[in-house]
Write a structure and sequence with these properties.
The chain is mainly β and 115 residues long. The chain has no helices and eleven strands. The termini are far apart.
């Protein structure tokens, strides 16, 4: 069974940076994504990367500030977050694409941005 474990969340001031990591057990040659869910809001897409790392996509709200990357040797996907804003506060989840959907999810890591 695939396990996805996120880490790297925390509390930072607005304008600061964080790097999230997602370590996957088992096979990792899948497209991966990051999502987030703020209190009282639905989960939303943040970024995705294909299995080789050659293709990436971002939500408009994070373009130019966040960078998704991966290291398939380490079975790890990263989300580098810069110029953080209070509205980036959320629980961040990584997910693995299987078939036609993101089917496997991590437990999430809390990111809190203070103004």
């Amino acid at each position: 069974q695939v396990q996805l474990v996120e880490s790297g969340g925390g509390l930072v001031q607005a304008g600061g940076s964080l790097r999230l990591s997602c370590v996957a057990s088992g096979r990792t040659m899948y497209n991966m994504g990051w999502f987030r869910q703020a209190p009282g809001k639905e989960r939303e897409f943040v970024a995705t990367i294909n299995w080789s790392g050659s293709s990436r996509d971002y939500a408009d709200s994070v373009k130019g500030r966040f960078t998704i990357s991966r290291d398939n040797v380490k079975n790890t996907v990263y989300l580098e977050m810069n110029s953080l804003k209070p509205e980036d506060t959320a629980v961040y989840y990584c997910a693995r694409w299987v078939g036609r959907q993101f089917a496997d999810w991590g437990q999430g890591t809390q990111v809190t941005i203070s103004s």
